[in-house]
Amino acid sequence: VNAGGSYTAEQRRTIAAALVTGDAACPVCGAELARQTVEPAPGVAYVRKRIWVLCPACRRTASLDVKAE
Ligand SMILES: [Zn+2]
Predict the structure, then answer these.
(1) Which of 27, 28, 49, 53 fits a 20 to 30 Å CA distance from 43?
(2) Are 49 and 65 spatial neighbours (Cβ–Cβ below 8 Å)?
């Protein structure tokens, strides 16, 4: 078991797509992901939102850039 690992690129895309519309589930184990919005650094101009997610069940984490609304 790759506990505490990371997600593949495809899994990250799945999570990012789900986050746009609402809550995301872990693509590995199906648990609901905990998430936290990362505040952009001062002076950063690009229009993106960075969200850090953690699966409480399998302990995988990811930091994802999500297009802002
Ligand atoms: Zn999981």
Answers:
(1) 53
(2) yes
Residue 16: which of 52, 59, 58, 60 has the closest Cα? Answer: 52
Q: What does the pLDDT profile of the chain (69 residues) look like in tens digits?
A: 445 689 999 999 999 999 888 889 999 999 999 999 887 777 766 666 788 999 999 999 999 987 765
Q: How far is the CA of 42 from the centre of ligand 1 (A)?
A: 32
- Dist. CA 49 → ligand 1 center (Å): 22
Burial annotation 8-38 (CB, 10 A radius, 16+ → b, else e): eeeebebbbeebeeeebebbeeeeebebeee
Cα–ligand 1 centroid distance for 39 (angstroms):
24
The whole model's pTM is what? 0.76
Helical H runs in the chain? 9-21
